[in-house]
């Protein structure tokens, strides 16, 4: 049995079972299936997330249950979680937003008391720790993504890391049902990745962003979000595993993980210690966590003005998450079961947050330019 699992998985950098899927959301979907979650079940997740997460929950047949954030923080509020869970809540998805670990001790307490499974959304970080324990090791499973904007980029891809051999056996069994993407699609993704590798620089962020959105709109590039389908109509993506090409690329990139991590640490350290601009403020971090950021968040007094100024100055500054279920606009929130006003802290934060890059392509010159830009802002 063990051999079978390892055949389907790539050996972990943390000694657990790993299964590679087409995307992070597909990995989450596979975890939910292995937990026998479906119709009538509820899955708790934080608002201030991306559409991919509720999409996977809905694909399993379950309903998303939105939990608010802690005040002035980017992660789930354990008190709000404790208040909102019901008898139908079968799992809690804990997101470590931007790489900042959630309050695991209090969340685990709630989960254990109510006997609910814990799944960690590690799409933003691989190596952060909470009380010296690596994130991704607290729950029964965690999932990762390798698309643009994540710590390791291969263009598209996801994986599930399973911490229990029982659950791993179930996924291993189910893995047979996941097929490879079409060759033409892999080729397109390959070209996209190559173009990104050659062309992308933080200075070109805004141009690349418009260009990519244009390509996505015209069906030339793979876009990040699937249209929300009617209930019961599953996107085909949820039947896909990772292509051999992407798996190979991922393996290669994982070898560089410690470089990527060191770089992110160094850049975030500079941002934290050198940005003293008045229109933005830092998010406090406690001493008992070690954060490896996917992006470095700042709270902006006037988000729109700062984004516009960054655009003009060609400084990479991202707006996500711009809504509680990014990128859904208010009118579409009900399609994923979110009611306006349900999570006020998440709604407020999405109007304030901007994020700076800490990825591989950021040069020291980019860091200096970004810091200068922010410190000289006059809005
Ligand atoms: C990117 C991301 C996902 C989903 O990843 P895909 O590979 O796009 O499916 C899930 N959760 C978070 C927090 C993410 O940032």
Description:
There is one protein chain. With 379 residues, the chain is an alpha/beta fold. Helix content is 38%, strand content 16%. It is built from 13 helices and 15 strands. Strands 1-10-9-6-5-2-4 form a 7-stranded mixed sheet, sandwiched between helices. Helix 1 (2-8) crosses helix 6 (165-174) and helix 2 (24-34) crosses helix 6 (165-174). The chain is globular. The relative contact order is 0.16. Residues 1-6 have low confidence and may be disordered. Pyridoxal-5'-phosphate binds at residues 23-25, 49-50, 52-53, 95, 121, 123-124, 145, 147, 158, 224. Pyridoxal-5'-phosphate (PLP) binds at residues 23-25, 49-50, 52-53, 95, 121, 123-124, 145, 147, 158, 224.
């Amino acid at each position: 049995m063990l051999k079978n699992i390892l055949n389907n998985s790539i050996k972990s950098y943390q000694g657990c079972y790993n299964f590679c899927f087409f995307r992070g959301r597909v990995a989450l979907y596979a975890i939910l299936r292995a937990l026998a979650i479906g119709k009538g079940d509820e899955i708790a997740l934080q608002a201030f997330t991306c559409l991919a997460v509720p999409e996977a929950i809905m694909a399993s047949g379950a309903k998303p249950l939105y939990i608010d954030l802690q005040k002035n923080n980017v992660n789930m509020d354990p008190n709000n979680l404790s208040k909102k869970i019901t008898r139908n809540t079968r799992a809690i998805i804990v997101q470590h937003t931007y790489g900042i670990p959630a309050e695991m001790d209090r969340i685990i307490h709630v989960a254990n008391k109510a006997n609910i499974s814990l799944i960690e959304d590690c799409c933003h970080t691989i190596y952060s720790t909470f009380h010296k324990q690596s994130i991704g090791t607290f729950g029964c499973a965690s999932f990762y993504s390798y698309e643009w904007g994540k710590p390791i980029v291969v263009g598209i891809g996801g994986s599930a890391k399973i911490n229990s051999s029982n659950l791993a056996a179930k996924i291993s069994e189910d893995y047979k049902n996941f097929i490879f993407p079409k060759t033409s699609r892999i080729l397109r993704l390959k070209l996209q990745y190559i173009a990104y590798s050659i062309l992308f620089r933080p200075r070109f962020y805004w141009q690349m962003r418009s260009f990519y959105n244009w390509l996505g709109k015209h069906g030339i590039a793979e876009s990040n979000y699937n249209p929300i389908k009617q209930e019961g109509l599953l996107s085909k993506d949820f039947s896909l595993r990772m292509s051999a090409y992407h798996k190979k690329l991922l393996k290669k990139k994982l070898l560089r993980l410690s470089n990527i991590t060191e770089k992110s640490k160094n850049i975030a350290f500079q941002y934290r210690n050198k940005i003293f601009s008045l229109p933005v403020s830092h998010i406090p971090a406690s001493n008992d966590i070690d954060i490896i950021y996917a992006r470095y968040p700042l709270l902006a007094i006037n988000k729109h003005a700062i984004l516009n100024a960054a655009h003009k100055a060609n400084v990479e500054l991202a707006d996500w998450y711009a809504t509680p279920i990014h990128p859904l606009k208010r009118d579409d929130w009900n399609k994923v079961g979110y009611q306006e006003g349900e999570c006020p802290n998440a709604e407020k934060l999405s109007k304030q947050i901007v994020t700076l890059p800490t990825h591989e392509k950021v040069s020291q010159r980019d860091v200096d330019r970004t810091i200068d830009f922010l410190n000289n802002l006059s809005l």
